[in-house]
Each structure stands twice: as C-alpha cells, then as structure tokens.
Amino acid sequence: MITQGMRTEVTGFERLKEDYLDCPDFKETYSLLTSGEDQVINDFLIEDGYLFKSQKLCIPNTSLREFLVWELHDGGLAGHFGQAKTVAALENRFYWPTLKRDVGKLLRRCHTCQLAKQRKQNTGLYTPLPVPNCPWQDVSMDFVLEFPKTLRKHDSVCVAVDRFSKMAHFLPCAKTFDASRVAKLYFDEIVRLHGLPKTIVSDRDVKFTSYFWKTLWFKMCTKLQFSTAFHPQPMVRLKSLT
Q1: Residue limits of the Integrase catalytic domain (predicted)?
Q2: Tens-level pLDDT at each residue, the chain (242 residues)
Q3: Potential cystine with 163: which of 100, 138, 159, 217 (Cβ 3.0-4.6 Å)?
C-alpha cells in the first residue's frame, strides 16, 4: 500500500496525470488501470491519479525526467554524484524504463564532472592559509554525507572548525539542505556562540557558490574564500577531524 509519505512526495506533480496518456511507456498500462477492474498490473497501480510501480512514482517521457536527473546529480549538499549514485538516488523514488541510460547520457554532458575526470591532482607545492591570530575569526567548513537518517531526517553533518584553536562544531543537517538552510544553521548554532567570522574557507560546494549564499555573507560583512577548484589541499586538516 502506498504510504502517506509517498503521497506527499508527489505534491506539485499534477501535470503527470495528463502526461501518462501521451507517454508511449505508460499510456497502455495507465488506460487499463483507470478503465478496467484490475487494481494492479505487473506491479503497476494508481494512487490518487498517479501511476506507481513497486511504490515508485512513474515519470512520463517529458522534460521532467531530465530535471530530476540534474536535481539529484548536483542538487543539495550532495555535490556531483557519479552515475551509479545518481541512478540509485533516482531509483529509490522514481521509475521509467530508460532511467539508467538517460542518466549516463546526461552525465556525459556535465561540464564539472568532465573537468574533474580530465584534470590530474596537482602534486606541486601549494600556498598554505594564513595563520589566524585569535579564535573564531577564521573558520573552515565542510560536509560529511551519507549517514543513516535520524528521526529528524538528518543524514549529514556540517563541520565548522576554528582554524586558530582547532575547536570544532558538528551540526546535524541533510544533504538536501539548500543555501538558505545551511546559512541559517550556521548563524543559529555558531554565530550565537562565537560571533561572525572574518573569513570562511570551504571547497567549492554548490551551496557556497550559490548567489544567495555569497550575497548573504556579503551583507554580513564576511568574506567567503574558496579552495582552488579540484585542489582542495587546505581542507585536509578539516577532513581529518571527520
């Protein structure tokens, strides 16, 4: 039986109910289920007008398929998943017959992923970060993902480290958090204890490069610094804590 959680998942997808009838992948099954007596056909069933296969929402052959691939490939804190993880994330909630093939085709167009594959790690010297002269003025921040979900739906940890004292805060979050939620988490949990930092060092996570995130720090008179793309050596100390 489809759970209430699954019904919540499809909120905002009303157009799907019309698209099923025009989709070669699903129109026959959808028509049979809506007009016949059978409630289930080959693991397909209809719930509130939506077509499911084994409790996974069926996505018709529309631009929504491509949108979902990109959302789960580079959205939230997840960064750029590889093909296997992107497919797994999609198959956990959605179904269409060519899902794996479509993911592979789209990810070959991902400029960031192709650059990451082509560039070799720079083995030469790098410039170390300046040594801070007081606590909580210079902060390093990173995310550790893929923990089991808690009751509050947290599956990741935001790690904030004072580069002067090496004191660290570990803040529960979710890999689906967007820039505004990450910013709110930091200000609620760190700023109330230590005040605003002068600099925050992070690798180039999608959350930190978003316009909202940079604008937010600018308004708070805080400078956001980035590690060099594909060469995040300054994050080594931070990752050793996690």
Answers
A1: 131-242
A2: 333 343 434 545 778 888 999 999 999 999 999 887 778 888 999 998 899 999 899 999 998 899 888 888 875 655 667 888 889 889 999 999 999 999 999 888 887 776 666 654 444 556 677 888 899 988 888 888 888 999 999 999 989 999 999 999 999 998 887 767 778 888 889 888 988 778 777 765 554 555 545 655 665 655 555 554 444 444 444 444 54
A3: 138
Compute CA distances 31 → 55, 124, 127, 131, 236, whole Å: 19, 63, 64, 67, 56
**Where exactly are the structural domains of the chain?**
1-60, 62-118, 138-241
- Give all strands (DSSP E) within the chain, no chain letters: 40-41, 44-47, 50-53, 56-58, 94-95, 138-144, 156-162, 168-173, 199-202, 223-226
CA dihedral 174→175→178→179, nearest 10 degrees, is: 90
Contact assessment for residue 27 and residue 20, using Cβ atoms and an 8 Å cutoff: yes
| Domain 138-241 part of CATH 3.40.50.2300 | no
Q: What is the pTM of this model?
A: 0.50
C-alpha–C-alpha distance, residues 98 and 163, integer Å: 48
Residue 206 burial by Cβ neighbours in a 10 Å radius (0-12, 13-18, 19+):
middle
Looking at residue 20, the DSSP 8-state letter turns out to be: G
In 10 A of CB 84, how many CB atoms? Answer: 10
**Rounded to the nearest 5 degrees, what angle is found at the Cα of 38, between the Cα atoms of 34 and 44?**
75
Residues 216 and 211: their CA atoms lie apart, in Å, by 8
